[in-house]
Amino acid sequence: MHLTPILLSLLTATTALTSPPPIRRDTNTTRPAPNEIKIASVVFAGSGCPAGSVSGNLLPDSNRLTLAYTSLTAETGGGVSAREARKNCQHNFKIQHPPGWQFSVSRTGFRGTAGIPRGLSGAARVTFYFSGEMGRIVSEMNIRGPYDGDYLKVHEFSDATTTWSPCGAEALLNVNAEVRFVPVANLTETATLSMTSLEEVELGWKSVTPSAAAAE
């Protein structure tokens, strides 16, 4: 497990990453003030994120996260070991906020590169869920060969399709990013699929009444 490099960057509220094309947002949505939202800790681990390979930012409005990867790459074929066909990075964010609020992931975008020969397909997938809660939401992109270039996936979740944090003053948001192939026997060409960034993970907020919070 790795802790500090990404946490220090997230708390600086700066970013140099390129964002996906803008999507219209509801400017009337109420939420806590930016200075009341804090990432208290970050833990990440996985086959696709060795130490020093992940950087991130909490954007200035304290409502969007951006992560960048240098080692989240799956490979198959060309004599590559089968264990290289799936890579993942599991993140755990402890997010603190004022009592009386719940949050969810309302939007996400991820991008990367792929070199996939004909007859093979790969998948890039991001899963979000809260510790102790049953619900989870998924954004996935399947890429079929022949393909050689960049890709971008943008996904918005409605209030009805997303999952909400438990009531309270903090929640543990888990994010699992992965890229994978189904290994093919005797594939002579090498296929690669990378996720280079998870961009603008946007949080949606809703207020909860004291009675609802107490019921939790």
Automatic annotation (TrEMBL):
Residues 1-18 form the signal peptide. Keywords: Signal. InterPro entries: DUF4360. Pfam families: DUF4360. The keyword Transmembrane does not apply. PANTHER family: PSEUDOURIDINE SYNTHASE RSUA_RLUA-LIKE DOMAIN-CONTAINING PROTEIN, PTHR38847. This is Secreted protein.
